[in-house]
Structures are given as C-alpha cells and as structure tokens.
Write a structure and sequence with these properties.
This protein has helices spanning about 15-20, 60-75, 85-90, 100-115, 130-135, 145-160, 180-185, 190-215, 240-260, 265-275, 285-290, 340-350, 380-395, 445-455; strands at about 10-15, 80-85, 120-125, 165-170, 220-225, 230-235, 295-300, 305, 330, 335, 355-360, 400-405, 425-430, 440-445. The protein is α/β, with parallel strands linked by helices and about 475 residues long. The radius of gyration is 21 Å and the shape is globular. Its EC number is 3.2.1.86.
Length: about 475
C-alpha cells in the first residue's frame, strides 16, 4: 500500500487556550489555563494575584480564524481538531444560563469550516476548566462537577448537533497524574487518593457525555483521548519488563475504563496496595459500564523506557522516563521514535479492537527565517514524514486508522511552558516569547510538503 484510504481525515489540531486569546472578552470567564500564564509548570496563583501572560492574546485565533482556516484549506485539510473553551459557554461553570456570546462564536467558527467542507473535530475539555469551579468547589475532587459538566455538554451538543458530528471528551485524560491542576483542578501537592478520586468523577462524567452524544447526536461519534506514553523495557531483564508493564498500565487504565467499562484488576490491586479507597456512589459503575467510546484517539510525540533501577530515570518535560540509547532527541529533549507509533497503533488496536485516530503528533523546534524570508524546516518534514510512513505501515498491519491531525498546524503557545519559540506549525506566526510581534502568518517549507502529502493521499512520503 502506497497511499492512505480515500476516507482518511487529514488535518491539524489546536486548543482554545493556546490559540484563541481574548481570554476575558464576550463574557468569557477565567479558566485554570488562564491562571497559569507562564505554562502549567508555573506556580499556581490566586485570582487576585494573576498577572498578564502570553496566553491572553495567544495568536489571536479568536479574531483571525477566517484567515487561518483559509490557510488550512490551502493545505488541503478536510478536518480540523479544535476545542471549545468551557468558560466561553459557562464562565463560572455553575451559571444558571449559558453565555450566548460564547455559543455564537463557535457557531461562526463551525460555519466557517463548513464553507470549506472541513470536518470539525471538537474536544469538550482541553486542559482547561472554569477556575471558579476550583475556587468554589475544589475542582474535580467534588462530584458536583459531574452534573456541571453534563449541563455544559448537553448545551453544546444541543446547539451544534447539526454542525459537529465528531467529538472527544477530555484531552490527554491521563495527564492528571502528572499535572493535577491542569487535568482535574487540584493543587500540585494533591495526594494520590485525591487525584484518583477526582479522576473517578471525570470518568463518570466521560461516560455521561458518551451517552448524551448517542442520544442527542445519534449520527455522531465520540471518542476518548489518551497521552500515548509508550514505554519499552530498558533491558530484557524481566524486572524491567514488569516495570514497563506498570508504567504503561498507568495510562492504559484510562483507556480500559473508557472502552471496556470497568476498573481493571491491575488498578484495583494498585489501589489496595497504596491504600486508595475511592468513594464510588451507587450507579457510578453501571454508568461507566454502559458507555464505551466509539473510537480511541491519542497523542504521540515520543516513547520512553522503564527500568526497575530508580537511578536510571531522567527528568523530562512533565513526564519522567529512562532515556533510550538507540534514539535521537529533539531540541526539547523528547525522544524521536517513529517506529514507536507503529508499535503503539498495533498495541492499541489489538487491545481495544476499535478504530483509532492520531490526534496529535508533531515536532516542537526553533524555526529561523533566512535572508530570503523563508523558513526551511526540513527537520519537521523528516519527523512527520517518518511518523506517517509508520502510520501507513500500521494500516497495512490491519489497524483501522480514521485520520491524522498534526499538533499545532499553526504556531501556538506551548501549554507546558507558554513559549512561542517552541514552534510546531506549518504556518509561522510572528509572535515571540516576550509577547512582541506583528502576528503575521507565513507559510513554512513544511506547509507545501504537507499540502502534497494530503493531495497524494500519502504517495509523496519518502520511505
């Protein structure tokens, strides 16, 4: 096979909190992301202590989306993954009525995509939630948020049921284990007991969203979204193999619950051995059991290794792992492992027997404009080319793959560090870490490369 299926969805992925800006306009409330203007690794602040940050304007997609969507169309996108900012719809999370200005904004955005026959692929909660729910309820640690999320989801499903047929619930839901404030609205020093209790509430909310989608948008599809944190054993020592199994189970747990509808035995053992006792209300497990997602989506940037020797571990960007001596690293220290994508696709397809969707993959790098005004990002082209070749191999292996949306098709604000210099896009945005810049858009070399990949359904990829 030299090309991807005719119905393959090609595009890119963005997040409201990293592109929109206009953080306080048209009735929008403050989100947890807005409270971390320097990235998720910055110290948490109170509302009164909040200082301006680069996310406040981001790349001004809120106002410039027609221009950006036209550029996506020029590349040939037939799909755009984006997120709705919960705080544009319910500014405080517990508001009696939704914010009409926020709802109308996404109406305009979806209508713009429809002009180009571009499928909107919408994430309900992408690394943000109303900060008022943290202040007043303690975040997802409070099961009242299940009801509030359900009301938000019902509102957007009813509003956009004729415009959006493809949905995701929580972005990289397993990230809560590494960044609890970003994932579930808990402080970074939250205990495992507190984090897993919040995760339980989120898993119940996920199940309710799945059932609501099936009811309100019967011709729609809704999936989950995992951070694909594939770990290899560092050596063939059985202890390292078991260490890798444990590391992989930490994130596969979420997929198991969202797909198979129950808490797996390995997780029940972990809870027992670590004295974690979840407060599971009557009906929770039945709700989860009745709501298997339609497909599995995931991000994949890098693989890692696991070792039984704690001295081997290396501090990484949010997620720690053991360095792999057989792989090169990106400028940000992430291991580059295209074949790991094929391994992961086969692994997930074998485990769940559901369609898969690669919803994030890309290379963050420092791009330079040369003397002729060009951006020759051959390193990005090579990274994406090699990963897409392996995705194509996985399809040949028998994996059912729905589509590929590269992360950050246009430069955006990095979530973890709030940098602009960590660029992923095919489109350069003239904005910099200090906040300066004209916001002018410029096509990179990779823009034309991806355009050709889509046009040829992958035939132009280099082996």
């Amino acid at each position: 096979m030299t090309q991807f299926p005719d119905n393959f969805l090609w595009g890119g992925a963005i997040a409201a909190n990293q592109v929109e800006g206009s953080y306080n306009l048209d009735g929008k409330g403050l989100s947890t992301s807005d409270m971390l203007p320097s990235g998720i690794l910055s110290p948490h602040q109170t509302r009164d202590q909040r200082t301006p940050g680069i996310k406040d304007l981001a790349i001004d997609f809120y106002n410039r989306y027609p221009e950006d969507i036209a550029l996506f169309d020029e590349m040939g996108f037939n799909c755009l993954r984006l997120s709705i900012a919960w705080t544009r719809i319910f500014p405080n999370g517990d508001d009696a009525q939704p914010n009409e200005a926020g709802l109308a904004y996404y109406d305009r955005l979806f209508d713009e995509l429809a002009k180009y026959n571009m499928t909107p692929f919408v994430t309900l909660s992408h690394y943000e939630m109303p900060y008022a729910l943290v202040e007043n309820y303690g975040g997802w640690g409070n099961r009242k948020l299940i009801e509030m999320f359900e009301r938000y989801v019902t509102t957007v499903f009813e509003r956009y049921k004729d415009k959006v047929k493809l949905w995701l619930t929580f972005n990289e839901i397993n990230m809560s284990l590494h960044a609890p404030f970003t994932g579930v609205g808990l402080q970074e020093d939250a205990t495992e007991q507190e984090i897993y209790q919040a995760i339980h509430h989120q898993l119940v909310a996920n199940a309710k969203a799945v059932k609501l989608c099936q009811k309100i948008i019967p011709d729609g599809k809704i999936g989950n979204m995992l951070l694909g944190a594939l770990n290899y054993p560092y050596t063939c020592n059985p202890d390292d193999v078991i260490a890798a199994m444990h590391e992989n189970n930490k994130w596969l747990f979420f997929g198991d619950v969202q797909t198979r509808g129950q808490y797996p035995g390995y997780m029940l053992r972990y809870f027992r051995e670590n004295h974690i006792e979840l407060d599971i209300h009557e009906g929770d497990l039945e709700t989860i059991a009745a709501a298997s997602v339609d497909f599995i989506s995931f991000s994949y940037y890098a693989s890692g290794c696991a070792s039984a020797d704690p001295k081997q571990k290396e501090v990484g960007n949010i997620v720690d792992s053991v360095p792999n001596p057989y792989l090169e690293k990106s400028q940000w220290g992430w291991l580059i492992d295209p074949k790991g994508l094929r391994i992961l696709l086969n692994f997930l397809h074998d485990r769940y027997q559901k369609p898969l969707f690669i919803v994030e993959n890309g290379l963050g790098a420092r791009d330079e404009i040369d003397a002729n005004g060009n951006i020759d990002d051959d390193y990005r082209i090579k990274y994406l080319n090699d990963h897409l070749v392996q995705a194509r191999e996985a399809i040949e292996d028998g994996v059912e793959l729905m589509g590929f949306t590269s992360w950050g098709p246009i430069d955006l604000v990095a979530n973890s560090t709030a940098e602009m210099s960590k660029r992923y896009g095919f489109i350069y945005v003239d904005r910099h870490d200090d906040g300066n810049g004209t916001l002018e858009r410029k096509r990179k070399k990779s823009f034309y490369w991806y355009q050709e990949v889509i046009k040829t359904q992958g035939k132009s990829l280099s082996e």
